[in-house]
Amino acid sequence: MARNIGSLQSLGAGDLLLDLCLGLPHLNRYVQKYREAVARRSLTPPSSQTEATSIRHSLPALVNDLTLTWNVLALPVLEPLTPEKLRKLNALTMGSLYAAVCAATAGCVLGVVAAGQPKSTVSTNSARSEEEALSDSLSVTVVEKALEIFSLVSSAIRTSTRAGGHVAQNHLLIGVWVLMSGLQAQLAASSSLISDKSTSGKDDKGKSPSRVREGSSRINLTKV
User: Fold this and answer.
1) pLDDT under 70 in the chain at which residues?
2) Which of 17, 91, 105, 214 is exposed most, by the fewest CB atoms within 10 A?
3) 85 near 78, Cβ under 8 Å?
4) What share of the chain is helix, strand, coil (3-state, %, to 5)?
5) Residue 42: predicted pLDDT
6) What pLDDT score does 201 carry?
C-alpha cells in the first residue's frame, strides 16, 4: 500500500486529481465566483427568484461534483503539499463553501417568495411540497459536503510536513470570511425581498386590478 501511494505521488497523481476536480463544471462555476469575490472583496449570492431557481435546478449535479471532490481529497496522494497544490486546494475548498452559501441563500429567497404567493389547489400544493422537500434535502447535502471538504483539507494542511502552521490558520480565516460574508449577504437579500413585498402590498391596496397590473409591470428605477 505504501509503495503504491509513493508511486502515485511520484507520478504527480495529486496535481492531476486536483485539476480534475477544478474542471468539474458545476463546482468550477463557484470556484470562479469565489475568485471574483476575492477580487472585489464581497460575495454576491442569489438575491432574486430567477437566480435562486437556477441554483435549485443545478443542485443534483452540484452534489455529484462535491461528492466526487470529497472522494478525491480523501485519497492519501496529496503530499507533498507544494504552494501550487495549496492554491488548488484553497480554490476547491472555498468554491465549495461558496456553493453552500448560494444553496442556502437560494432556499431562503424562494421561501420568502413562496410565502407571498396565493394558495393553490391541494394537488398543486402536494406536488410543490414534494419538490421543495427534495430541493431542501439537496441543499442540506451541499452544505454538509462543503463543510466536510473544508474539514478534510484543513486536517491535511495541519498534518502536512511541508505546510507551516500559518497556512492552516490562513485557510481557516479565509473559510470564516466566506461563510460570514455569505450569511450577511443572505440576510440582506431576505430582508430586501420582505421589504419589497411589504411595500408592494401597501401600494396595491385600493387600486383596481388593471392599475395593480400596471404598477407591478413598472421598473423601480431607484433599485436599478
Assistant:
1) 116-128, 193-224
2) 214
3) yes
4) 80, 0, 20
5) 86
6) 53
Q: CA-to-CA distance for 80 and 160, rounded, in angstroms?
A: 8
Nearest 5 degrees, angle CA 22-CA 27-CA 30? 105
Domain chopping of the chain, boundaries: 7-194
Cell of 189: 437579500
What's the grid cell of residue 177? Answer: 470570511
Do 106 and 55 touch, CB atoms closer than 8 A? yes
Task: At 39, list the grid cell.
Answer: 477580487
Q: Is the CB of residue 94 less than 8 Å from the CB of residue 130?
A: no
**What is the per-residue pLDDT for 215?**
37
**Residues in contact with 103: Cβ distance below 8 Å, sequence separation at least 6, in sequence order:** 55, 59, 62, 138, 139, 142, 143
State how far the Cα of 151 lies from the Cα of 154, in Å rounded to an integer: 5
